[in-house]
Specification:
Length: 294
């Protein structure tokens, strides 16, 4: 083995054994004692280890009690996958497909980010088995988000970037699983606008995963408003905030026609109606606002 290289071992066995990897100086680098006490044929995984020196390493198969049988060992030596990905504020984004072919292999995707920016990360068409782990890591190495994922589509939800610099998305293996996943980094700009009480309907298109919409309106104390929403978003949350920032009403809805009805206004001033995303849902929502005196 070569210093700095990563290695892992997959054992297919009809026996019950202990496994370990020893360095040239005899030091045990890693071991697996979780493959003992079974009678059926099984696959055991000795997880990745980084080789500390160049030389001859030893894979040890240790007996357990009186079990006997045949064991086939497969040794994997590899480097991790490194990619560069660009963030985008478009629905399609700039996707990068990552393939991890070898058990124990990890992947890293780097992108440039700006302080106070919001991003979300889509993981789509994954063929990797749970429990894979995706981590969004800041330039200083701090973990900003941590997501367990497997087959299908997943999302690292909207996250505010704390500084300007190079961020990393780490895709860490789970057990001996391999496969591929498509990664897209979305730069999120929320939708801002106005809505007029007893005025025209306002259409909103939530096109980016993690995007929210905020519509302001002028309200009068001792009046009440009803916010009607007709949506294709799937699950989302609607809310109304008072001029002082306090929450007056909120409710989770699904696609179709819904409403926050008869919400009393507490003061004169500028209120905010919010459509808050859920997971990676995107779609349209038409909003209309009615106001009546109490």
């Amino acid at each position: 083995g070569i210093m700095g290289q990563h290695g892992s071992v997959v054992a297919t066995t009809s026996s019950s054994n202990y496994y370990s990897i020893r360095a040239p100086d005899g030091t045990v680098l890693i071991s697996n004692s979780g493959c003992v006490g079974f009678l059926q044929t099984q696959t055991c995984f000795v997880d990745r280890t980084t080789l500390p020196q160049t030389g001859t390493y030893t894979i040890v198969v240790g007996h357990y009690q009186t079990f006997t049988g045949r064991t086939t060992l497969t040794l994997y030596q590899f480097a991790d996958v490194h990619e560069v990905i660009s963030e985008s504020n478009t629905p399609a984004g700039n996707p990068v497909t990552v393939t991890r072919d070898l058990p124990g292999q990890n992947a890293e995707l780097a992108f440039k980010g700006t302080a106070c920016q919001y991003v979300s990360v889509r993981l789509t068409n994954s063929t990797m088995a749970y429990p894979e782990t995706a981590i969004l890591e800041a330039p200083d190495g701090a973990s900003l988000q941590n997501l367990g994922f497997g087959n299908g589509d997943n999302l690292i939800d909207r996250t505010e970037l704390p500084e300007t610099g190079t961020y990393r998305i780490l895709l860490l293996h789970g057990y001996a699983a391999t496969g591929r996943v498509t990664v897209t980094v979305h730069r999120i700009t929320d939708i801002h606008g106005t809505i007029t009480p007893n005025g025209p309907m306002v259409p909103v298109d939530i096109a980016i995963p993690g995007q929210n919409a905020l519509l302001t309106f002028t309200g009068t104390v001792n009046h009440a408003v009803s916010l009607k929403l007709n949506s294709t978003l799937g699950v989302y949350t609607a809310a109304i905030y008072a001029p002082d920032g306090s929450l007056l009403a909120t409710q989770e809805f699904d696609s179709g026609t819904n409403a926050l009805a008869d919400i009393p206004l507490t003061e004169n001033g500028t209120y905010i109606a919010v459509v808050d995303h859920y997971a990676a849902n995107t779609g349209t929502v038409d909003l209309s606002l009615s106001e009546t005196a109490h």
